[in-house]
Amino acid sequence: MTSKAGPPPPAAPVIPSEETEKNDKLPASGEIIPTKHHKYEAIKLLGKGGFGAVFLVKREDGESFAMKCESYDVKKQVLSMDCKVLRGTFLIQSPHFCSVLDRGKAIDRFRFLIMKLVGKNLWDLRIEREPPKFSLNTSLKAAEQCLMAIQDLHTVGFLHRDIKPGNFAVGRPETNEFHTVFMLDFGLCRKFIGETQTKDLRMPRTSAPFRGTTRYASLAALKQIEQSRKDDIEAWLYMVAEWTVGALPWRRLKGQDKEEVLRWKEDIRTGDAHDEFMTGLPRREFDTIMSYVDSLEYHSIPDYDHVHYLLQHACKVILYL
Ligand SMILES: Nc1ncnc2c1ncn2[C@@H]1O[C@H](COP(=O)(O)OP(=O)(O)OP(=O)(O)O)[C@@H](O)[C@H]1O
Ligand SMILES: [Mg+2]
Fold it and tell me: Which residue's CA is minimally distant from atom 21 of ligand 1?
């Protein structure tokens, strides 16, 4: 994600540092990158993350796209997961995911995929505001769209496991998609449905290495318990609270402060921090959403419509304020 002035961006997924630094093989601005069918010119860097970088590129016919690259040096390849997930969401025609148009590799340097270009991510959009928060109406509308994206991702059998504002973006006004939110970045996804015909849930591992971003990670993720659909929704709740209020109570803690963030998250449920967390949120509805999410278990299928209904209720209430 691009770095900007203002509050520090949430920590990137926890991965070994040598993987994050080896980006020297990635394309330079102006470089022409060919595939079997097309040529793309790298125009500018849109975002740089743990596993590679995303560039704005122009095809030979002048059309713009996003190119997600993954350096050959990374130990854990994740671009293929992006492809797998986006193939699934394409099949169900979800409006919340980018279409993949092309892919290829620059031998010994990087692999890439070419996808639909969208607009700014929701982290950048928020922090360029003064104060750095969305209006309640915008917050709740964005929350609804992100929830629908999460539901669609779950429908195709994947958990995201890194729900955070930098992994959602609005569409471009030029394509009339400014009011559609797109989900990005499937590098930490995990298939939660088994490979058999019965579509059973995979058995949870007794312990699961931490995946995600500490600030938004669910209680289970922080405790290294296998994540399930409820955990994406819990992370969504923290993300929505942050962009509605402007900050989370644990905003000053870093990616490595998992124990302390876990204590905060427990404290907003049962302790003194409850009020601090809820101030500025539509309290009745968010209290209900949090209790509902906490009532879910590994095997639960979340009732997305119930959460959606509560958001819509909160939207109606603000109309009368
Ligand atoms: N299709 C796209 N169109 C426009 N911008 C995009 C697109 N895909 C990604 N970006 C931008 O690039 C940033 C990084 O993308 P993404 O999250 O997929 O990569 P990443 O390497 O996994 O990043 P990180 O490790 O920071 O999560 C996004 O936050 C977004 O701003
Ligand atoms: Mg990302």
Answer: 49
User: C-alpha distances in angstroms, 184 versus 195, 200, 315?
Assistant: 24, 26, 26
Q: Strand 190-191 and strand 158-159: pairing? A: antiparallel
169 lines ligand 1 (CB under 6 A): yes
162 is catalytic: yes
* Domain 17-115 class in CATH: alpha beta
Q: Compare 27 and 6 and report the one with higher pLDDT.
A: 27
Report d(CA 123, CA 302) in Å as an integer: 26
The overall longest dimension of the chain from CA atoms, in Å, is: 60
153 close to 98: Cβ distance less than 8 angstroms: no
Which residues does the annotation place in the binding site?
Answer: 68
Contact 208, 280 (CB under 8 A): no
Q: Which CATH class is domain 122-319?
A: mainly alpha
**Pairwise CA distance, residues 234 & 262, whole Å:** 13
Binding-site entries for ATP: 68
Report the chain's mean pLDDT, rounded to a whole number.
91
- Which pLDDT belongs to residue 74? 86
Residue 185 Cβ inside 6 Å of ligand 1? The answer reads yes
User: What pTM value is reported for the model?
Assistant: 0.92
Q: What is the pLDDT of residues 191-232, one digit of tens each?
A: 998 877 667 888 999 889 999 999 999 999 999 999 999 999
Q: How far apart are CA 153 and CA 90, in angstroms?
A: 11
d(CA 304, CA 148) in angstroms, rounded, equals: 8
Distance CA 253, CA 251 (A): 6
The domains of the chain are located at 17-115, 122-319
Nearest-ligand number for the alpha carbon of 125: 1
Q: Measured from the CB, is residue 165 less than 6 Å from ligand 1?
A: no
